[in-house]
Amino acid sequence: MTKNDRANFGSKLGVILASAGSAVGLGNIWRFPYETGNHGGAAFIFIYLGCVLLLGLPIMVAEFLIGRRSRANTAGAFEKLAPGTQWRWVGRMGVLAGFLILSYYSVVAGWTLEYIIEAATNSFSGKTPDEFISSFQAFSSNPWRPILWLTLFLLGTHFIIVKGVEKGIEKYSKIMMPVLFIIILILVVCSVTLPGAEQGIEFLLKPDFSKVDGNVFLSAMGQAFFSLSLGMGCLCTYASYFSKDTNLTKTAFSVGIIDTLVAILAGFIIFPAAFSVGIQPDAGPSLIFITLPNVFQQAFSGVPVLAYLFSVMFYVLLAVAALTSTISMHEVVTAYLHEEFKFTRKRAAQIVTGGCIVLGIFCSLSLGVMKNVTVFGLGMFNLLDFVTAKIMLPLGGLFISIFTGWYMNKKIVWSEITNDGTLRVPVYKLIIFILKYIAPIAISCIFINELGVIKL
Ligand code: PHE
């Protein structure tokens, strides 16, 4: 494909919504609340915000500029900007990370479909907390049902991907993102008006810095990374479809604000409700799937219709958020196969979908019948999560910041960020400083910490 016939996003809003759709996902609604719960609430959020602003946004600008400058898939981008060098491995690692994340992410995304059906058929009603726990455990370890759902979820993603960039990704993001916001807002209002919700609100707003240690700080940085879809060239691939007058810095800001807002609003849905019915905020990754149906049930015990609506809406919201993220991961790998190996777009997408279904099946089974098959003590699901989120993404981000901060021609970086000098970007120098010094050092710290070499 030549530079000129490469597809583009049709509008500015489409650019922002598609990128925000990638960023907003299970990371915001499922992972953010449980990390916040595990790390003491407001203080964690405070540090998280600092990480998004200081590290996430500049690296997002870096990914954007690499993608738009090269107008290629992630691996091709490094090849174009640094021909014949080893930098292409950064892109390839990103593609691989995308494929691996998509495989296990789809398992959790599939669970959201099961929960939509459970909520819609009213099977939450009348269950005790213990029953919610055992039914989740029975479901997630069942050899068939989760596989069915993950396959369906990947086929849904596939369907949107083969429709192409503008007709597929952009059109669906334009519909889904606003719907997502509306549902979130309704749920926040419901949650904060529950009796006893104040304690949850306080948990989210009153920082207790005595609980902050190095680990909290580094966890917050890791979460920022995952949530903003950084480090694997996802936003880089999307930026290859940006037009040449897209303002990269402004887009990064908008995406960062939307992503952060959704995460915090998710906190405002979950914690007030959890405190209201006496559920511990540090319930961990199972928080949404085990605790929330129970929360909805008890919170609206007098009004079963509300319990019903509240729970259906929540899981629909989660599925929508996950879908716009799986689309973005799928696109990274599809664009790579399509452009580097000359497969048709459709065939490339089929390979990705097929491969992820197979790997996803192993991930799902690793939580049930294949529990005992482990590598380094981890089942397939946990292994992929560990290798991608804790190794590949930080490593990718580290290299991306070094690439733009040190390797790339300064003039090219300048002309991409300022659109050939037509934009005034007051934070330009700050972005470069962060990419050169702060980001590489900070990410190295996360990386080292997550590998357990240094425990701060
Ligand atoms: N940011 C997405 C989420 O919050 C996950 C994701 C990670 C998507 C990496 C693409 C790339 O759920």
Descriptors:
456 residues; mainly alpha; Hydantoin permease; 18 helices; 0% strand; globular; binds phenylalanine; SNS_sf; transmembrane; symport
Question: What's the topology here?
Answer:
Layout: H1 12-23, H2 26-38, H3 42-70, H4 74-81, H5 88-120, H6 129-141, H7 145-162, H8 165-192, H9 198-205, H10 214-227, H11 234-239, H12 248-276, H13 287-299, H14 304-340, H15 345-365, H16 380-407, H17 410-417, H18 428-450
Residues 22-23, 25-28, 101, 226-227, 229, 232, 234, 325, 328-329 line the site of phenylalanine.
Describe the structure.
By secondary structure, this protein is an all-alpha fold. It has one domain (12-450): Hydantoin permease. The protein has 18 helices and no strands. It has helices spanning 12-23, 26-38, 42-70, 74-81, 88-120, 129-141, 145-162, 165-192, 198-205, 214-227, 234-239, 248-276, 287-299, 304-340, 345-365, 380-407, 410-417, 428-450. Helix 3 (42-70) packs across helix 4 (74-81). The longest helix has 37 residues, at 304-340. The termini are far apart. The structure holds phenylalanine (PHE). Phenylalanine binds next to helix 1, helix 2, helix 10 and helix 14.
